[in-house]
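Researcher: Final request for today, and then I'll write up notes for the group meeting. The sequence and the SMILES for glutathione follow.
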Amino acid sequence: MSQSAKLELISFKVCPFVQRSVIALNAKRVTYTLTHINPHEPPDWFKAISPLGKVPVLLVDGTPLFESAVILEYLDEVYPPALHPATPLERAQHRAWIEFCSELLGRQFRMLTAKDETGFNEARDALQQGLQRLDTMLSPELPYFAGQAFHLVDCVYAPLFMRLILLKQEYGLELPLSKRMQAWSDALLALDAVKTSVVDDFSTVFANFLAANDGYIIKR
Ligand SMILES: N[C@@H](CCC(=O)N[C@@H](CS)C(=O)NCC(=O)O)C(=O)O
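Model: Predicted protein-glutathione complex:
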């Protein structure tokens, strides 16, 4: 496939896995269209192209790609600038920490949807522990994961931080971040590629998502 392929990303407005794909597309200044579908009533055409019924799906001249990590790899192979490090070992490390981010997003999701205090506390503590582990991997050089250069691994953590900030501002839920990690989060959330990676009314969309789940987090 060439750089001139028509790209259509299928999305749920609140999905952090879609958002990481959007951030990579934005960072690479690639032209694409975004199609939001209703997660509660996915259309038949979506079920036909998404084997797991999940977003994101990237249509490349009509050919569906699923799994956000795979979509990121595809985008990085086709569209410059390369956002993976140059050496195989560093690339492998970044892939591993991208995988780790997906686990943390799962913990964050469990925290947001937990129905009772016990489930909420367990998920919050697991997320906090994961963040502490991640912290040990950050380059001493500011501001991104590996220092001055922005990589795919940065694309995937920005949605996690965006939700942590909203949880702090709107719901008084604070997960303490180290100074180094706070600087990373601040740098990511200041990027245009990140700011424009969600719908304008994202805080409302996020609040509606939490309300619909009716979890412990909105009752504390
Ligand atoms: N491993 C997948 C996870 C994607 C995912 O969990 N998407 C959620 C929305 S954030 C979804 O589509 N859920 C619908 C479902 O599970 O039915 C990826 O990285 O693309």
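Model: Residues 88-113 form the longest helix (26 residues). The mean pLDDT is 97.
Researcher: Thanks, that's everything.
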